[in-house]
Every structure is written in structure tokens, then in C-alpha cells.
Amino acid sequence: MRLQKVLALGFWFLGNRLAEAQLGLADGFLNFTSPSFSLALVKDSQTLYSLKPTGSSFDFIPGDMMTKRQNNGQYHLGDLTFRARKVGSTAWVSGDTSTTRHPVTPITASGTTLAAANLAPTLPSTSLLSITRRWVVQNNVLQLLFDVTNSQTTSVEIGALGIPLEFNNIFTDRTAAQTNTLCSLFDPYIGQDAGYVQVTPLLGTLSPLVVLPVGQSPLEGWRFLPESTSADPFYQSQTFEGLYEWQFHTLAYAQNEWSAVTPWNAATSTILQAGQTRTYGVQFLLAPSIREIEHTVRSANRPVAVGIPGYILPTDQVGKLFLNYSSAVQSISVSPSGALTWASNSDAKTTGWVGYSITAQTWGRSRLSITYADGTLQTVHYYVTKGATQAIGDLGNFLTTSQWFNSTTDPFLRSPSVISYDREVNAVVKDDPRAWIPGLSDEAGAGSWLAATMKQYAQPNAAEVAKLEQFATKVLWGSIQNTNGTVKKSVYFYEPARLPSYPYPTSIFWGNWWSWNRAASFATDRAYDYVHVIAAYWALYRVARNYPSLVSVQTWQWYLNQAVFTVSTLTNGVGFANDGLMGETVIRFLLNDLKREGLTANVTLVENRMKARETVWAGERYPFGSEMAWDSTGQEGVYAWARYFNDTTTATNALNSILAYQPLVPHWGYNGNARRYWDNIYGGKLQRIERQIHHYGSGLNALPLITAFEASTTDYYLLRVGYGGLSGPLSNIDQGGFASASFHSFADTLKWDGYSGDYGPNFSGHSMGIGTYIVNHPDFGWQAFGGNVIATSPTVQVQIRDSVRRRVYIAPLGTLLSVDAGAFSLVTYNPSAQTVVVTITAVPDGVTGAASAPNGRLVIEQIATLSGITLLKPTTNLALNAGAYTVPFTSGSGTVTLAM
User: Fold this and answer.
1) Residue 333: which H helix or E strand, with range?
2) Burial, 260: exposed, middle or buried (Cβ in 10 Å; 0-12, 13-18, 19+)?
3) Angle, vertex CA 8, rays to CA 7 and CA 13, nearest 5
4) Which of 79, 204, 217, 513 is deepest in the core (most CB within 10 A)?
5) Greatest CA separation for the chain
6) Which whole-number Å values give the CA distances from 282 to 134, 145, 181, 247, 735, in the listed order?
């Protein structure tokens, strides 16, 4: 009897699954070829089942997962959603081809058309629109077109219209090799008529797909598509981020779900008269490589924009914007009004480009709208920050005042410390069900004190250093870190029986796995936590070594030894130690300092431990593992050590992997924004799977990119993407100095998360990599990423304007100049004499409260091997101490001339 019930239940389940499976896979496919692709459509739905470059087995579409995604409500490429209403009505009538599928009505194809269908059978009977979908090859280019007809006798307003995009970003149940060789990620340039979507295979070496508009089909909006999340392959999860929709019109959403936010672009609708038809569509092109996506866009006669240093613009820097399009610029406007000002410049050196100098005026988001003579509209999205040095000055102040936790009764031994913060209620986070957030460890708990200490490395402040010395010697050492060198996963825990008098909030649900008890919190088996401790010690070593009057509790030797001790413990059997670890570039910096200090035994220890890890990676094709099924955290460390130990193959693989998930687009939020989408679950206040904007992936993954550029001085793609990522962490800092973990990209939210969370690793990457990069670009001439070029002849003069003012890279010389103490103010390069004059000041300008350096400490490194170039040296005798030239100050500054 029990068996009969089980069989009956099984047949019922199977029958219902088949009834739900409306895509029509069982009825077969339609197969076609075009000059660039072989493609397959599901016969019943005429949605895309396969899209492979000609002669390749790589598939941009998850056909191998389609049997798990064949039910109603699951989106595929070829679907359409819309909202329309009769003119005069207020209610929108929705249509969605995925909701209740029925086989579409095929239309006989001829000429350039591969397949066509009337979509009426799969649309609601209340639809105000009649829609024909066509797959065509026009001028050898594959296109997807929708002929949208007003089938009513009165005018109809279309308030939303969009194409769901499905590409193979499903990592569920895949091995590392399968994920990296089969899957892609896709990101938009939400730039109206100039918009496009790039689909980049995860290997980073295969041809990316570029999806462009056809005719008047602007990329006005970018909407996450909701689907059921309960069944395999687990939509909107760590292994399947989910899908997005290219929206041609968005007014119906802007009036409803998005009414509380300012959308990326001005929302529009369109009116069709009775019987009128308008065609919308997209085309599919292959770019030869990721670096050539912009060239592919230009070849399709679409506008291209290049921003220098990117699209995050401090008020003390002049940005440059270069445009290339076949039609002349007719007008430019900005929203909010006055947020940016612009003026034409003559920087462009090659035909087709026009240049503008952009001046930031108003803090926050702004949208530059460029209208061309042929009516094409392009939008470029900027984020304006305070002056760069002041922004991080505000950050340091906020962290050590508003986020300073000082309680003599705290049972978790968290005092004094810089603790997590909730900006939405303006209070420190003393309790959270995720134990690590109030527990000063993990990225989301250590993030605030990590940012505070690394800020001192970048821009020391006497009062801040005094507090952080107390934290380092009372809480970091002895509470977070045990005396045997191990590091706790959290010092906070949920265990009312152990702490009966502690007021755990009853409003919090404590039943999830992450509400650790004391034993779980005090575990020391997570290597990622150790890197933050190393960074804090190293940053305070740098302060003590170069600004000795600021420290009073410990010596620079103590901080340096603590960092080495923590490295030793980390690499002595701690869990995940053989993964690339977030922010571990700091260990590379530490090793360099150990060499400079002549501490041979410690150098040998650190080198041997890192070499053992790199040897493991060298034996793997995809050594980017982590706690997660797929991640963008390991590449930074893998690249750093593979390059250090001359493992070119592994370093190149890591760099290519980064290029696949860190895009270059004219939008402050996506430019240089490495792929992260699950960390809000573990560190954010608003917890959901969502493409995050400028989470810590931006600052950390930018480090390999910018380092690779320093060795390859004409690979400007690396510079642009890397600098975009390094600039990202500046945008997280609000006008009061609070730094959010990330920005929410969903179109109904578009705001910074309320929690400080795991911002610290992002700032750590920023502080280690940001600088001013001086280049002579073939198209744009002399430019400075992070500085203002104030003269180009006979010498190139650059005002240094990056946030840290500690690193200047002169690309034509392949030379990196850095200061351990002081700040670069002005750099003059003479190309004919190949000499450099640098002005170093005791304090960076533009910020109040920064400590004054007793003297400058200048380090000169020859990074790239270039013909005829040798190491620069001062032309006057300067004392050399631990690899740094001592530059005496007169009236707060010093000038040094360098020559070969």
C-alpha cells in the first residue's frame, strides 16, 4: 500500500512537471548558421537554445541546463515583457511571453529572416499589442527583432518594453574546470542609444559577445528578472546570480516599483497610433578579445566614450572625456543641473575623437547626456566625490569617532575598537545575528578597523594613530588574535547561558547557523581573517617607521614582528591558507619592507611560506578557489605570488580571469567593478543576491591589473580598468566620511547599503594601488590618471591629485616613484632629457588634520624593461636609508631632480 502511494505520488509529480514544462524541448529545435554563429532555437517557443561562435564548441546559452529551466516563468533569450495602456487610461496592462507558454505561431521565413513567429499564443488575451518576433541575418550580422503593433482602434502608450537576456552564468553543480570553460558573465553599459551588453567567457581569452541596439532600441534600463528560487539550478543563489532585462522603455516601472529612486536614465514611454508598428531589436557581434570590445562597438557605428581617469571624479581633479562617433556632437546636458561642467579641449591626437575637460561640481551621482546631430542619445554616468585627500581624511575621522567603540563593560573584549556601523540609524552595530559583524573579524567585522589602520598608512593622523595603537595593543593583540598567533573568527558570540546578563536583542532571530556560540566564534581555522591582522600591523609599522613621533605604545620593530608572526601562523595549517586570500598583496608589501630593513631570516621565512603556496597553484589550471563555488577573491593573491616567483603561466591565467569579470564601460558603477553578488548576505544590511557595485572586489582585483600595466607600459586597457577599480572605493565614502560596503544595483533600490560591512578590504586595495599614472596615449596625448596635466611642452607637468599621493608612475620611463613619508605635489618630466623633477610636501594638500612628515622618504623602482632606460637617481647627494632617499624639507617641501 505504501509502495502504491509512493508510485502514485511519483507519477503525479512527473505529470505536473511535464505539464509545467511549456518551453517545448521535446518537440525539437530549429538550427541555423550565420557568418559568425551557429544557433539553435526551441521549435515551439523560438527562443534561443544555443549560440556558438562559428567553428567553436563554446556556447553562450546554457543549453545543458535547459531541461531544468523549461517551465513557465523562466526567462530565455527571445522572450519579451511589456506594460502598455490605452491613452487616457492610468492602469498598465502587462504582457510577458514567459508567464504562460504556448507554442508560438510560426511565420514563413524568407530572405534575410531565419525564423519568425506571431507571439499571440503566449501572450495574455488582454494584450493591447500584437508582436511578431524575427531572427534575421542583416549584413552578415545576427539580429533579434520585435515588430510591436498597436492592435487597438485607439492610441496605446508603451510604458515598459524589454528583452530578457539569458546567458550561461549558471555555476550550479559544475566543477571549477566546467565553470571556467563553459560559463560567461554579462554586464551592461546603460547608455541609451549608445548602450550595449558585453558577455565575457570566464577564461578571459575567448571572444566575448557584444549585444548592441538595432535602430531606435536604447538600453534605457537594466532590470533584474524575478524567477522561482526553490529548484535546481537555484536561481538567485551563489551559484546562479540570475538574469537581467534590456529595457527600451521604463516609465511604467519608474512610476511604480522605482518611484522612490532616481533611475540611471530618464524614464520614457512611446505612443503608437492605432495600427502603427515600431520595431525594436538587438544585434549580436563577436569581439576578437575583451580588450577589443570598444573597437567592435565603433565598427558597428555606435558611439564610444572614454573617460580619464574614469567616471568617479573627485572635485580637485579635472576629468577628460573623449567621444568617437560618425555624427557630430550637437549638445551636452547634465542631470542634476550644474553637477558637472565641461569645455572642449584639443587633447585628441587621432581622427574621430573629440575631447572635453570635465569639472566636478556637485557631490554624488550625475548623468551626462550627449545628443549627436543624427539624434542619437548617449549617457555617461559619473560619481563626484569630495577632493580625494579630504574624502579619505573624512573616512579616517568617521572611523575613529563615530565608529569608535569604548565600553568598560563589554563582555566580548571589543573595547576600544573601530566597530561596524549602521548608517541608516547612525549607530554602531553591537549586535547582529551574523556573529562576525559585531565580532571584529571576518571581512564584515574586521572591515572597519582594517580601513582605519590602512588609512594611517595612506594618510596618518596623530589623533587617529593614538587610538589605533590602543586598539592594536589591547584588542587586536590578545582578544582578536591569541598569544599563539591564531586569529578568532569572531570575538562576539550568541550564548545566553554563558552571558545571562548580556542584553541580546529579542528582536533578532538567533536560530540561523551564523549565530555562533563561543566555541564556534573562537575557532581559528579561517585564513582570510589573518590577512586583515597582518595588514593592520604592517600599516602601523609604516607609520611608526616613517612618522616616529606619532607612536608611543610600541616600536616599529614590534609591529613588523607581529606582522611576520601572523604570516607564520597563517601558513602553519590554518584552513584555506592555500587559497588566494583577500588583500594578501599586503604580504608582498611586507616582504619588500623586510628586504629593505635587512631582516634576512624573516625574508626567508615569508618567501618560503609563499613559495609553498604558489607551488600548489602552479600545479592547477584554476587555482582561484575559496569558500564559495566560484569566486573573484583568489586571483589577487595568486597573481601577486605567481609574478613574484616568475610563474608567468599562472600569473597570466589569473590576469585573464580578472579581465573576464571586471568590465570597462562608461558608467561609474560598472567601470572596474569586479563581479560580486552574494556578499550582502554575509555583510550587508539589505540581504539579497544582487550584482554589487564597488564591493571589495573592485579595489582588490584592480591590484593585479595596475601592477601588470606597470610592467606593460602601453597596455592602456589594463590601466583604465585597473584605475576604475582602484577609484571605486572612493565612491563608497559619503559626505560625512561613512563608507558603505557596496551600492545596490537593482533598479528599484540604487542606494548604498546601510552597513559599513566589509568595506575595509576595498579600501585596503585602494590604498595599496592608487597613485598618479602619467602616460603619452596614442589617441589622447599626455594624460594623468589621478593628476592634472598643466603643461605638455617643453616639459610635462602634472599636479598630483590622487587620494594618497604616495605613488607616481611615469609610463614612458617604466619608473615607479613612491614616498614612505610626505606627499607628491608636482612632477615634471622632460621627455627629451629623460629627467624628472619631483616636489614632495610634508603634508598632502586639500585635507585638514594629516600628520606632517619629518622629511620625505623617496623610493625609485624600475618596473618595466625599456630600451635605453636605466634607473633614475637623484642628481644631488641624498642619504639612503632602508632603500629610501631622505629628502629634507624647507618650509614644508623639498624638490629633487632625477636623472639616469
Assistant:
1) strand 329-335
2) exposed
3) 95
4) 79
5) 98
6) 11, 7, 26, 11, 40
Nearest residue to 814 via CA among 894, 896, 740, 871: 871
Q: Which residues pair with 798 in a beta bridge?
A: 789, 827
Q: What is the pLDDT of residues 630-687, one digit of tens each?
A: 899 999 999 999 999 999 999 999 999 999 999 999 999 999 999 999 999 999 999 9
Please tell me the total number of residues recorded for the chain in this structure: 900
φ, ψ dihedrals at 216, nearest 5°: -90, 85
Average pLDDT of span 548-572: 98
Q: Picking from 20-24, 163-167, 868-872, which range would have the lowest pLDDT averaged per residue?
A: 20-24
Tens digit of each residue's pLDDT (9 = 90 or more) over 796-849: 999 999 999 999 999 999 999 999 999 999 999 999 999 999 999 999 999 999
State the cell numbers at 876: 644631488
Question: CA 102 → CA 83, 98, 124, 226, distances in Å?
Answer: 20, 9, 11, 21
| Contact assessment for residue 666 and residue 655, using Cβ atoms and an 8 Å cutoff | no
Confidence class for position 629, pLDDT limits 50, 70, 90: confident
How far is the CA of 521 from the CAs of 414, 422, 518, 533, in angstroms? 14, 22, 5, 17
Of 823, 152, 792, the closest CA to residue 546 belongs to: 823
At CA 724, angle to CA 440 and CA 681, rounded to 5? 35
Contact 90, 72 (CB under 8 A): no
Q: Mean pLDDT of all residues in the chain?
A: 96
- For range 483-489, the mean pLDDT: 98
- Other Cβ atoms within 10 Å of 229 Cβ, number: 12
DSSP 788-849: EEEE-SSSEEEEE-SSS--EEEEGGGTEEEEEEESEEEEEEEETTTTEEEEEEESS-TT-SS
State the pTM of this model. 0.97
Query: What's the CA gap between 103 and 98, in Å, rounded?
Result: 11
Q: Which residues pair with 95 in a beta bridge?
A: 82
Query: Cα-Cα-Cα-Cα dihedral of 610, 613, 619, 623, to 10°?
Result: -110
Following CA atoms 746, 747, 752, 755 in sequence, which dihedral angle do they give, to the nearest 10 degrees? -40
Handedness of CA 762, 763, 768, 769 (dihedral sign): positive
The grid coordinates of residue 741 equal 560596503
Name the DSSP class of 737: S
CB-CB contact of 131 with 149 (8 Å): yes
| Residue 57 reports pLDDT greater than 80 | yes
Q: What would the grid cell of residue 70 be?
A: 523549461
Q: What is the 3-state secondary structure (H, E, C) of 559-599?
A: HHHHHHHHHHHHCCCCCCCCCCCCCCHHHHHHHHHHHHHCC
Q: Which of 95, 98, 89, 103 is nearest to 28 (CA)?
A: 103
- Among 803, 806, 805, 813, smallest CA distance to 774 is for 813
Q: Is the pLDDT of residue 11 over 80?
A: no
**Residue 19: pLDDT over 90:** no
65: Cβ–Cβ under 8 A, 6 or more apart, which residues? 168, 170, 172, 233
Q: Is 503 exposed, middle or buried (0-12, 13-18, 19+ CB in 10 A)?
A: exposed
> Residue 707: in which H helix or E strand, if any?
helix 697-711
Secondary structure (DSSP) of 399-467: HHTTTEE--TT-TT---SEE--EETTTTEE----SSTTTTTT-HHHHHHHHHHHHHHHHHS--HHHHHH
Q: Express as a percent the part of the chain with pLDDT over 70.
A: 98
Task: Please report the DSSP string for 500-517 in residue order.
Answer: TTS---TTS---STTS--
Residue 201's nearest CA partner among 188, 193, 192, 210 is 210
Sign of torsion over alpha carbons 213, 216, 221, 224: negative
